[in-house]
Specification:
The structure is a homodimer. Chain A is of the alpha/beta class. The first copy, chain A, folds into three domains: 4-136 and 304-324, NAD(P)-binding Rossmann-like Domain (Rossmann fold, 3-Layer(aba) Sandwich), CATH 3.40.50.720; 139-300, Dihydrodipicolinate Reductase, domain 2 (2-Layer Sandwich); 347-427, ACT domain (Alpha-Beta Plaits). Chain A is built from 14 helices and 17 strands. In chain A, the strands form two sheets. In chain A, strands 7, 8, 9, 10, 11, 12, 13, 14, 15, 16 and 17 form an eleven-stranded mixed β-sheet that branches. A six-stranded parallel β-sheet of chain A has the order 3-2-1-4-5-6, with helices on both faces. In chain A, a hairpin with a 2-residue loop joins β9 and β10 (259-270). Chains A and B meet through α2, α6, β12 and α12 of A and α2, α6, β12 and α12 of B. β12 (293-300) of chain A pairs antiparallel with β12 of chain B.
Chain lengths: 432, 432
């Protein structure tokens, strides 16, 4: 066993600096846990001359990544520089040099996970990426360690703080989407360009990584059925409330004999469901396992402290593996082949809001269209619309087949009495 | 490093059998993680002749614990036999023989933790007890591993399934305490003798263990301020609901410069607080750390699957430590001396329900008693009582000093206009 494990740091921004600080502040405790010293030897930076004020032993700075990935004394590379294509090439090269990798880069892992896993398996190296999802929630460590002897069936997550903040404020204050988004940008809860958050891409990346780990299957970002919250109407939030639900942007990863299904979409959750009470910028992941039943992990989704903590936790795991001679094992690399579930095998509940003409027999006409596709309803609310000739309808179905539902909705839109289909959302977390 | 680590099992009931099953079913994955084989060599049983049908390699059965604790080939002892005084002696003997211990025995750890920790430290052995608290929630592993580089300030837990089930049903159905307790006993959610659950002792044991681990301080069961839910009134549950709160049996462990405070008592939680929506027999622990902020872990509190899973997870940690040469380190043995906070340093919000005479000036008289002790109110509800001469009052204070509150309550009970003080509960989880 080694006395010292040397680490190379790709990137030295806030998170990278946080990693050095934690390693320094917890030097003794890390030695106790791993039986050796963990030392950052080199760090990749843009500007070699910037004043950095790092604690502890001096770290060699370089602006050439090869100085780090080719250094035979470095065992583990911590990647906190971000970026996708260039970073992928740098890490693939490092893996060929038998370096173990810890990465906090969710874009990279969600988009190029398979290439990285393949390289790591071929080279028998470790590849850890807990920090890439929900930094403050020790969810991945829990799935991989705590629930590793269980069979995970379903994961439901509120994994994007920005959208959860927006939906919480819309629900609490009754303000409309654009107004709340602007406020969130002013408060720093939303980026100037909020696209990746608001349209669900960030959540989709995190759900991809959660499903890779939870189901041990190399799922891809493109497997995620994706719908964001842009233009979400306060009307739906109010009606959902009346029906006993909260609307949240929920990522759902399910696994059964037919394969897996992955989605990120605004969904109605019963108010009694623990996820429906996760508010503001908080994140949470609900996990259903055969042995453990239902478990939920709740915490802040991001931030320097949580992310750096998660990286160091991954780093300690890698160092332990090096000392135990168990690197490159199957627990962070997917064990199963990717198998997706077809629409024909997928069943969910749906919420629909629509405007219809105020004429006798309308409701019968509507329900007949659904009945023909074997779709029945759990709740229906009918009420006058703003216009006198129209009525507004909110309907919640029982569990329906995804294909049948789509074809019923097509038939519905053909009906002359249907003025507009305003919203269609998934309903989750209750009985079907 | 060893090829095989041999384990001795003290007890072979449902949980012990579950441990053997998990070790057998996950043989390969455990080898991948630890670099060696983990094998149960011997098990202690009452009846040597009972048919057991265990999977995997044959396990030697014995009815003499010394056969296990004195066996030089056995490295780790898993204790799942329960009991306190006798079990303590058996484990202390085993520790003197340099055996590492994994125990699921919360009564033992809560009552005799210090003796066990001292012996383990002296003998440089490991002592793991995650499974003793909230089996299904990987909370202890998360605190010890995931949050080990953080400074934990406060833990709030719903850690007893029976009482949470009773309070949930009382709140949802409006049934009274005795009725729901009887129903819970019939459904198997409460023991025939429900004392340890209903009076809060079970929750107090778990909070003691959580605070030992979270604060790394050898706290004792006797340090817990304890009040159960026996005789809880539906009136309080209803009033709390009107004021925007749920009543839960909450264990609270707090740590600041003055020391720690530990309590288990029925408390009012704002409905917006994630813990207030933990219902039925579920458990949850809310943790506040300096770096991570707020995190919550939610899951089933008990059961064969969760408990055996937690034990195997502890066992894997011990085996890794043996291989790394890092057993007997400080992370499961308390690092700090026990230091309790005095009442004079403790501040909480309170809910009071009382009956007063229906006379002018009563409210002024009451609030004067409190104002003299610097206690002011956040919410007051006054309404007619069943008797025409009386009124019922519900009051929620701002944060108050514990000593000042006690002396105000004494003064209050002296007032001729106060007919009865019906309930006093802690209020938690909101702003002070």
């Amino acid at each position: 066993m080694k006395d010292t494990i040397q680490v190379g740091l790709l990137g030295l921004g806030t998170v990278g600096t946080g990693v050095i600080e934690i390693l320094h502040n917890n030097k003794e405790s890390i030695k106790h846990k791993t039986g050796c010293e963990v030392k950052v030897k080199k760090a990749l930076v843009h500007d070699l001359h910037k004043d950095r004020n790092l604690p502890g032993d001096s770290v060699e700075l370089t602006d050439k990544y090869e100085d780090i990935t080719d250094d035979p004394e470095i065992d583990v590379i911590v990647e906190v520089m971000g970026g996708v294509e260039h970073t992928l090439n740098v890490l693939l090269g490092a893996i060929e040099n038998k370096k173990h990798i810890v990465s906090a880069n969710k874009d990279l892992v969600a988009e190029h996970g398979e290439a990285l896993f393949d390289a790591a398996v071929r080279n028998q190296t470790d590849l850890y990426y807990e920090a890439s999802v929900a930094g403050g929630i020790p969810i991945i460590r829990s799935i991989v360690d705590g629930l590793s002897s269980d069979n995970i069936r379903k994961m439901m997550g509120i994994v994007n703080g920005t959208t959860n903040y927006i939906l919480t404020k819309m629900s609490q204050d009754g303000s409309d989407f654009d107004e709340v988004l602007k406020e969130a940008q002013e408060l720093g809860f939303a980026e100037a360009d909020p696209t990746a958050d608001v349209d669900g891409l960030d959540a989709a990346r995190k759900m991809t990584i959660l499903s890779i780990l939870g189901f041990s299957m190399p799922t891809r970002l493109e497997d995620v059925k994706l719908k964001g919250i842009r233009g979400m109407s306060t009307a739906d939030i109010d009606y959902a409330d009346k029906l006993g639900y909260a609307i949240k942007l929920i990522g759902i990863a399910e696994h059964d004999e037919e394969g897996i299904s992955l989605s990120v979409e605004p969904s109605l959750l019963p108010k009694s469901h623990p996820l429906s009470n996760v508010n503001d910028e908080y994140n949470a992941v609900y996990v259903y396992g055969d042995a453990v039943g239902e478990t939920m992990f709740y915490g802040p989704g991001a931030g320097k402290g949580p992310t750096a903590t998660a990286i160091v936790s991954d780093l300690i795991a890698v160092v332990k593996n090096i000392q135990l001679g168990t690197t490159g094992n199957n627990y962070v690399h997917p064990q199963h082949d990717r198998k997706l579930k077809s629409k024909a095998d997928t069943y969910t509940k749906k919420y629909i809001r629509l405007h219809v003409l105020d004429q006798p027999g309308i409701l019968m006409e509507l329900t007949r269209v659904f009945a023909e596709k074997d779709i029945s309803f759990d709740q229906i609310i009918q009420q006058p619309a703003d216009s006198h000739e129209e009525r507004e309808l909110m309907m919640v179905t029982h569990s329906v087949n995804e294909e049948a539902f789509e074809s019923a909705m097509e038939a519905l839109e053909q009906l002359p009495s249907v003025r507009s289909v305003d919203s269609v959302f998934r309903v989750e977390g209750g009985d079907n």
